[in-house]
Amino acid sequence: MTGGATGIGAEIVKSFVDYGAQVGVHYRKSEAEAKALKKEVCGENTEVTLFQADLSESIEREQLIEEFLKEFRGIDVLVNNAGGPVGTDHFLELDHASWEKTFSINVTAPFFLAQSVFPLMSKAGGGRIINISSIGVKYGGSEKTLHYNAAKASLEAVTRGLAKLGAEHNILVNAIRPGVVDTAAYQFVSREEFRRRVELIPMKRPGKPQEIAEMVRFLASDAGSYITGQIIAVSGGD
To answer: In which domain, by residue range, is 24 found?
Structure first.
């Protein structure tokens, strides 16, 4: 579970723990939040292990997989949740480094993490890879998020490709497009801008992180055993 310390990621962790799963939680900078989450969810029969890594760095990605496997000996479900825009400048002012790092976090890292676990899942008889995209892909993003949504569109293409390659090995690969969810991810817009965006949603409300988490758990469960290659919007009709 990448990006599991806060927001949607933390709710996904809680949902898996409720299901009785052993969970490896990755974070980059949110150490305090990750430790607080572990303290909150850990019970007598719960195993949650924290892993720190900067997923934009290839060496740290490789070490993350090594450390995870040392702890858990295998992997059934990979949730690629870590992501977000690097830089929120107008697209006419966006620098090359922000574009590249945004793609590194949102596309490159999920692809290479999936590449690392594919053989392990295949050998074990199957697995699930669930990528977290964004409803912004549907619209192309704003003048400040075009680079982020271009990266998420690429992640959806990777999802479909991996699903075709994984089907014969019972590796099911899907992506979820969260709509507007009231988390810190929207801290770069004013509350008035946020309110106006919510008004465009048919259901007239933002989503809850728990609603995204429940879809992730559905896809990871036996109920999702015949679903692969899908991009599923959880967006209130957006």
So the answer is: 7-178+212-233
- List, run by run, the mean pLDDT of 10-residue segments along the chain (238 residues): 95 94 95 95 81 96 96 96 91 94 97 97 98 95 91 98 98 97 74 90 95 98 98 97
Distance between CA atoms of 177 and 77, rounded to whole angstroms? 18
Residues pairing with 171 in the sheet: 127
The tokens of 229 are what?
């290659």
DSSP 141: -
The strand pair at 77-80 and 48-52 is best described as unpaired
Instruction: Read off the CATH number of the domain in which 69 is found.
Output: 3.40.50.720
DSSP letter at 85?
-
Q: Which residues contact 95 (CB under 8 A, 6 or more apart)?
A: 87, 89
Catalytic residues: 148
Q: Is residue 93 part of a domain?
A: yes
Please state, in angstroms and rounded to a whole number, the distance separating the CA atoms of residues 107 and 151.
Answer: 6
How many structural domains are present in the chain? 1
Q: Is residue 82 part of a domain?
A: yes
Beta sheet of 231-234, edge-to-edge order: 77-80, 127-132, 171-178, 231-234
